[in-house]
């Protein structure tokens, strides 16, 4: 123990000495994301025509209008979305932009604006306590903002603004700004809130980034060390630990795409500052380049420009968010990957940094190439083995994506939706996920925070497209319990026949095994792909099983008669999200094929054809019950219900078809083409006979889950020999002559 203590102490002393030595040479400013060398190149670029010059002049026009207005630094009063909250957000953004303008134009008016605002904050900050709208039970209240997360964001931007105008300040001004605002904020966010600063979570990421960058600017090497390795420099928390724990080896962030996007900004910004100040740390090479992988993963987790809305996600967020713009810009500066230019072009934003200049120059030269979106399984957890998030894509018959979610809980922002799925086609969401119940920064809606319905509905299992057992959510809705368990990804394969994946979980419900196989299967003869879903439930006791499909569009038709409630509506249940669903109708289709068709706003029809045995009830629901403040969107679903069963297999295929054009007044192909859907099991092989539009297909899935299984098999079907070498193969059994 003594030897370990002495070794740790020596390491800390050597690190601090090395940092202090390197810091002593950092008299030059700016020294964070933008450096002196960057500024020289940027000043030359704004004199030439091109995207960078255009972006500069656009920002200069905006900043000139902003600095002409009186400086307002109000006493904090409002929660998220309120005037003072938004004012302080605008202030740090305006300070940063004005700082950039000062560096590029060398005009004193821009530096004076930032200086005067910082001095106003220096007068205000010592006079205020914790924010009046802080949550009573919250452990991370702010002073300028209701939560310290926003205070950390304020520091990340403000310390860069200060760095950009540092050389214009007198020693007295530097002293006041540092001692009365910047240092107090940095100490408040670190030593003042150790539970947040040391936390391995996006709140901790923002805090460590702000404090660490402040350390570089104000020559505080100890702050940098604490930001990197925890307040006690043990490595149990801090920025490096966050890189170790929050990302999988492939760069997937455990809270999902929405928070991966949000967390990218502090990760990338602080990493860029580290790289500029201490390149010997090789921060972008850490964990085999996990940060650069995280940027590409964030892109991959999008469809039609929007992020897949899993967990607590706001569905309107996409690749044009400022965080991913910054990430793509830095990544291109390091890699010059032409696919990143394709994303940058779609983002339509050039940021005024050295890397932003590289992006602008490359786009001016038309060096971009299409970003290579792919079908891929992103392992979850720091080891990549805590389940996965699976993306299947197809370009056959249009741009399609199927998202399969056998991932971990995603901490407090995670939803109880093990083995759920979403489906997209022709730039629209078809089988949907609710995302978060929140009106971001709309103060009238619960202060812009997550609504109570986020817990009572959006997080609950029934809000998602997966099995609900006995009208209770996965893990009984217990986040701490859910965080201890993740599904097992048994396999994923993408090839010429399409993509297929299988996953299972045994802990979501006691004594119940849930196992799902999803495939996005290419049918080239029909010029389209279909989504195949096989969900197996095996349990020790008998249960009620509900499998919802939340769809986007207008219900058009069904192959069975629905008993519709036209006079009055009742909630489907009492809790676990069921209390928010109006029961609009129900039916029990006869044994065979049960079809439900809806029309999406993209003008395409979608039919789910299910293989039923006469014991399934279809419940048609609309969201909005027990919602006195109209907080929930009125979305629709149908739920397949089976009662008193211990083992059941849900089988269905989702088929896009047809074209509806109200402008030109025509409708084509409004009815399903599925004629036959049969499923048989031969040992580990699942054989699906799918007949569509006269074409008969044999879809074969190898479910062998033994380690290092030999996937090459010979088998017979209808007395004919066949073979499979891999997880998925498709045979055309005829030439389409059977109508």
Q: Please, could you describe this protein's structure?
A:
The protein has 739 residues and is of the alpha+beta class. The protein has three domains: 35-245, Glycosyltransferase (Alpha/alpha barrel), CATH 1.50.10.100; 247-373, Glycosyltransferase (Alpha/alpha barrel); 383-671, Beta-galactosidase, Chain A, domain 5 (Distorted Sandwich), CATH 2.70.98. The chain is 33% helix and 26% strand. The chain has 18 helices and 28 strands. Strands 8, 9, 10, 11, 12, 13, 14, 15, 16, 17, 18, 19 and 20 form a 13-stranded antiparallel beta sheet that branches. A five-stranded antiparallel beta sheet has the order 3-4-5-6-7, with no helix packed on it. A four-stranded antiparallel beta sheet has the order 23-24-25-28, with no helix packed on it. Strand 10 and strand 11 (512-523) form a beta hairpin. Helix 9 runs parallel beside helix 12. It is elongated. Mean pLDDT is 94; it is low at 1-14 and 16-21.
* Chain-averaged pLDDT: 94
How many domains, as an integer?
3
Binned, the helix content reads 25-40%
Strand content: 25-35%
The backbone outline, from C-alpha atoms, is elongated
Q: Major beta sheet, specifics? A: 13 strands, antiparallel
How many angstroms separate the termini? 80 Å
Structural class: alpha+beta
Count of separate DSSP helical elements: 18
Low-confidence stretches: 1-14, 16-21
Topology of helices and strands:
Elements: H1 2-24, H2 36-45, H3 51-67, H4 83-105, H5 108-124, H6 148-165, H7 171-189, H8 194-197, H9 202-217, H10 221-229, H11 238-245, H12 257-277, H13 286-300, E1 302-303, E2 306-307, H14 322-335, H15 338-347, H16 354-364, E3 376-379, E4 388-394, E5 400-405, E6 420-425, E7 428-431, H17 452-458, E8 468-469, H18 479-482, E9 488-495, E10 498-505, E11 512-523, E12 528-551, E13 554-558, E14 563-564, E15 570-571, E16 581-587, E17 592-599, E18 605-612, E19 617-623, E20 636-657, E21 659-661, E22 666-668, E23 674-682, E24 685-692, E25 695-702, E26 712-717, E27 720-725, E28 728-732
Antiparallel strand pairs: 1-2, 3-4, 4-5, 5-6, 6-7, 8-12, 9-10, 10-11, 11-12, 12-20, 13-17, 14-16, 15-16, 16-19, 17-18, 18-20, 19-20, 21-22, 23-24, 24-25, 25-28, 26-27
Helix pairs in contact: 3-4, 4-5, 4-6, 5-6, 5-7, 6-7, 6-9, 7-9, 9-10, 9-12, 10-11, 12-13, 12-14, 13-14, 14-15, 14-16
Keywords: Lyase, Periplasm, Signal
Organism: Neptunicella marina
GO cellular component, one term: periplasmic space
């Amino acid at each position: 123990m003594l030897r370990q203590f002495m070794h740790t102490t020596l390491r800390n002393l050597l690190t601090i000495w090395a940092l202090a030595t390197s810091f002593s040479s950092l008299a030059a400013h700016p020294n964070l994301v933008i450096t002196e060398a960057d500024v020289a190149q940027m000043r030359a670029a704004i004199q030439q025509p091109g995207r960078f010059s255009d972006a500069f002049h656009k920002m200069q026009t905006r900043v000139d209008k902003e600095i002409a207005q009186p400086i307002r630094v109000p006493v904090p009063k409002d929660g998220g979305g309120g005037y003072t909250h938004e004012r302080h957000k605008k202030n740090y953004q305006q300070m940063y932009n004005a700082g950039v303008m000062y560096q590029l134009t060398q005009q004193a008016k821009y530096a004076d604006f930032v200086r005067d605002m910082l001095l106003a904050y220096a007068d205000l900050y010592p006079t205020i306590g914790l924010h009046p709208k802080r949550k009573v039970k919250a452990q991370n209240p702010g002073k300028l903002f209701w939560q310290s997360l926003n205070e950390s964001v304020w520091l990340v931007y403000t310390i860069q603004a200060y760095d950009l105008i540092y050389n214009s300040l007198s020693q007295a001004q530097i002293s006041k700004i540092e001692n009365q605002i910047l240092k107090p904020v940095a100490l408040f966010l670190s030593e003042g809130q150790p539970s947040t600063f040391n936390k391995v979570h996006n709140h901790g990421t923002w805090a460590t980034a702000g404090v660490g960058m402040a350390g570089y600017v104000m020559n505080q090497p100890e702050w940098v060390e604490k930001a990197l390795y925890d307040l006690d420099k043990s490595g149990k928390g801090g920025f490096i630990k966050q890189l170790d724990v929050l990302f999988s080896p492939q760069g997937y962030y455990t809270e999902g795409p929405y928070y991966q996007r949000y967390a990218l900004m502090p990760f990338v910004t602080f990493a860029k500052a580290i790289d500029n100040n201490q390149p010997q740390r090789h921060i972008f090479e850490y964990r085999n380049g996990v940060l650069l992988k995280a940027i590409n993963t964030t892109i991959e987790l999008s469809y039609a420009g929007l992020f897949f809305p899993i967990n607590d996600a706001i569905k309107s967020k996409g690749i044009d968010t400022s965080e991913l713009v910054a990430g793509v810009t830095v990544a291109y500066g390091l890699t010059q990957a032409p696919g990143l230019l394709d994303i940058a072009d779609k983002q339509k934003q050039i940021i005024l940094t050295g890397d932003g200049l590289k992006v602008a120059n490359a786009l001016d030269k038309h060096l971009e190439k299409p970003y290579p979106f792919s079908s891929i399984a992103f392992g979850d957890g720091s080891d990549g083995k805590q389940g996965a998030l699976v993306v299947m894509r197809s370009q056959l018959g249009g741009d399609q994506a199927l998202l399969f979610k056998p991932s971990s809980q995603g901490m407090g922002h995670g939803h109880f939706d093990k083995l759920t799925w979403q489906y997209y086609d022709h730039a629209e969401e078809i089988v949907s996920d609710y995302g978060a119940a929140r009106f971001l920064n709309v103060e009238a809606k619960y202060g812009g925070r997550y609504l109570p319905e986020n817990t009572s509905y959006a997080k609950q299992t029934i809000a998602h497209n997966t099995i609900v057992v006995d009208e209770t959510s996965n893990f009984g809705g217990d986040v701490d319990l859910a965080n201890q368990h993740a599904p097992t990804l048994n396999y994923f394969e993408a090839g010429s026949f399409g993509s297929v994946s299988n996953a299972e979980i045994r802990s979501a419900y006691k004594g119940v095994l849930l196992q799902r196989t999803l495939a996005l299967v290419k049918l080239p003869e029909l010029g389209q792909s279909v989504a195949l879903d096989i969900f197996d439930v095996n349990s020790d006791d008998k249960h009620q099983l509900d499998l919802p499909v939340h769809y986007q569009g207008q219900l058009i038709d069904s192959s069975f008669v629905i008993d519709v409630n036209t006079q009055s509506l009742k909630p489907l249940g009492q809790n676990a999200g069921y209390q928010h669903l109006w029961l609009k109708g129900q039916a029990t289709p006869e044994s065979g094929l049960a079809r439900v068709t809806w029309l999406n706003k993209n003008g395409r029809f979608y039919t789910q054809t299910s293989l039923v045995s006469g014991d399934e009830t279809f419940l048609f629901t609309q969201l909005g019950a027990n919602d006195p403040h109209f907080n929930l969107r009125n979305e629709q679903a149908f739920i397949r219900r089976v009662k008193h069963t211990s083992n059941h297999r849900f089988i269905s295929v989702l088929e896009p078809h047809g074209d509806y054009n109200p402008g030109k007044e025509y409708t084509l192909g409004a009815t399903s083409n599925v004629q036959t859907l049969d499923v048989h099991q031969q040992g580990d092989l699942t054989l699906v006979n799918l007949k569509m539009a006269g074409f008969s297909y044999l879809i074969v899935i190898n479910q062998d889950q033994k380690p290092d299984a030999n996937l090459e098999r010979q088998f017979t079907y209808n007395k004919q020999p066949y073979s499979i070498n891999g997880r998925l193969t498709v045979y055309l059994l005829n030439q389409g002559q059977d109508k």
